[in-house]
Amino acid sequence: MSGKNGIILIDKNEGFTSSDTVRFAGRRLKAGKAGHTGTLDKFASGLLVCLAGSFTRLSSYLTEQDKVYEAVFEFGRETETLDPEGAVCAEGGIPVLEDLESALVGFRGEILQKPPLYSAVHIDGTRAYKRALKGEVPDMPFRRIFIDSLEITGYTAPFLSVRVACSKGTYIRSLARDIAYSLGTVAYVKSLRRLQVGRARIEDAIGVDEIDEDTPVLDDRNSMEALLGITGIRIPDAEVESFLLGRSLKDAGFLAEIEAATPLVCFDSDGRFLGLLKKKEGRWVYGMVNGALRD
Questions:
Q1: CA distance 128 to 82
Q2: What range does the domain containing 49 cover?
């Protein structure tokens, strides 16, 4: 496969969709294709984990990671989309700091959350936002999420600055809405920035305009282990060709003594990423193979 194959950490700009950002990055990298591991709203900025070339097949393994955000909630106003792009649809009072501090206690740990009406969640086979654009108000299902930490970093009424560490599937827009509702008022997310995805940090990201075909990507053992948070294994040299061709693993003796959580991140003796293995019904199967190395 021609072009770059690997992972690149991008600092997404406000006003651009995640899809537009990775397409632009893919063209700059001259990658055959590009994707990402989790959508960041158009109005938001921050860390977007971009997968280039054959690494797009890693997407399903990286979307499960926790996230860290910093956000500003504006109290006293709610918009239809719960972000700055929507029209104001409700107004309310401005809470005092002491009440906000008390309210946040109830939003730490495991909670149930309804996604925003304007979201990509499927309702009866149709994206919720598409139904909302038609004037429909579908019943959004509750989701179980986990808020690891929720801390106030500043408050100049009506603007509350927070830092949130949360599980996959958490909507910061819903969090702002629900905190406000618990205080008998309304709010929306005025600004949002993603700081971390799993172990990947915004400090290690680059602007999309800085990307070109010479931009290095993360594709070696040390980088992959650090990013995935999983210890890798080295595939014996004699087994590498069979691995890359996806041949049966039933006689792969090097796997016999391994008792590890899956997926296993696999490398060759030079530290090149070969693919992933996972357990299925008690046996090892391929999660993905880095097809770029077959070329």
A1: 14
A2: 6-65+199-210
Distance of alpha carbon 36 from alpha carbon 241, whole angstroms: 28
Residue 95 CA to residue 28 CA, distance in Å, equals: 47
Structure tokens at 130: 């598409």
- Position 229 in a domain: yes
> What is the C-alpha to C-alpha distance for residues 213 and 3, in angstroms, rounded to an integer?
8
Nearest to 166 by CA among 144, 143, 148: 148
- The Cα–Cα gap between 221 and 5 comes to 14
Q: Which DSSP letter does residue 158 get?
A: T
Same domain (yes/no): 128, 166: yes
**Angstrom distance (rounded) from CA 31 to CA 48:** 17
Residues 107 and 57 in one domain: no
- The count of domains in the chain is 3
Are residues 90 and 166 both part of a single domain?
yes
Q: Which residue has the tokens 């149930």?
A: 112
Length in residues, the chain: 295
Q: Does the annotation mark 41 as catalytic?
A: yes
**Sequence letter at residue 206:** I
Cβ–Cβ under 8 Å, residues 23 and 38: no
Query: Tens of pLDDT along the chain (295 residues)?
Result: 356 888 999 999 999 999 999 999 989 888 878 889 888 999 999 999 999 888 888 887 778 889 999 999 999 999 999 999 999 999 999 999 999 999 999 999 999 999 999 888 888 888 888 898 888 888 899 999 999 999 999 999 999 999 999 999 999 999 999 999 999 999 999 999 999 999 999 999 999 999 988 898 988 888 877 877 766 788 888 888 888 998 877 666 777 667 666 678 888 888 888 888 888 887 788 888 887 776 6
Q: Are residues 51 and 149 in the same domain?
A: no
Catalytic residue selected from 11, 41, 178, 219: 41
